[in-house]
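Problem 12. The chain below contains 216 residues. Write out its predicted structure in token notation.
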Amino acid sequence: MKIVLLAVVLFANPVGAKAPGPDAPPVLAAMTDAMLLDRHPAGAVIETRLDADFNGDGLVDTAYVARVPDEWRKLAVMMGYAEETDMGHEPAGEAEMDPYPLGSATLSVKKGVLLVEDLAGGTSATASTYRYRFDPAQRRMRLIGDDVAYYSRTNQHDKVEISTNRLTGQRIRQVFKLDADGYAPQPPVKEAVPTAPVYMEDAPLPDVTLGLGEAG
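Solution.
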């Protein structure tokens, strides 16, 4: 393990570079695409990835979407760690995604929250934004909120939007009725949902939240 650690440090600090001070944080290189794909079946590709610090410890973490076209698609997070004699990345969550995206998912991080934006489907599409925060006690990514919408890209049926705050337990559902003038917003309906932690592997697909698929 010490040899691996030395190799990582040397790779991140080439010959001639100034050596970090004794109080400098450890240097951890980001995982390569090949390293990420080693965790998945043959034929998988990386659709998109984001290398950033999700928990403020100064180490590089990686969120990415892997897929086998027309078969499966997953969101996964690898968190960087550095111990006295070891450093590397460990899985912090993995979630199923719609296997038929209308383009690549968008990953971003704001104030320690990972945002996952996606659009999938066909003539009728589902748009979604999921928000995850790292739970240091569980070392897992917790779902703290999600916004999903179902609509017709050719204006053939009503639109439904559902916004859920998993921390406060409040959900707002709103229907937009299709009429001759476009979409007419109906009064929003507030609902209560459980506040028990939902981690990435248990995050519901947009179709489940919308009531379009079987609940899992």
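Discussion. Residues 128 and 148 are 4 Å apart (CA to CA). Students who got a different answer should revisit the alignment rule from Section 12.3.
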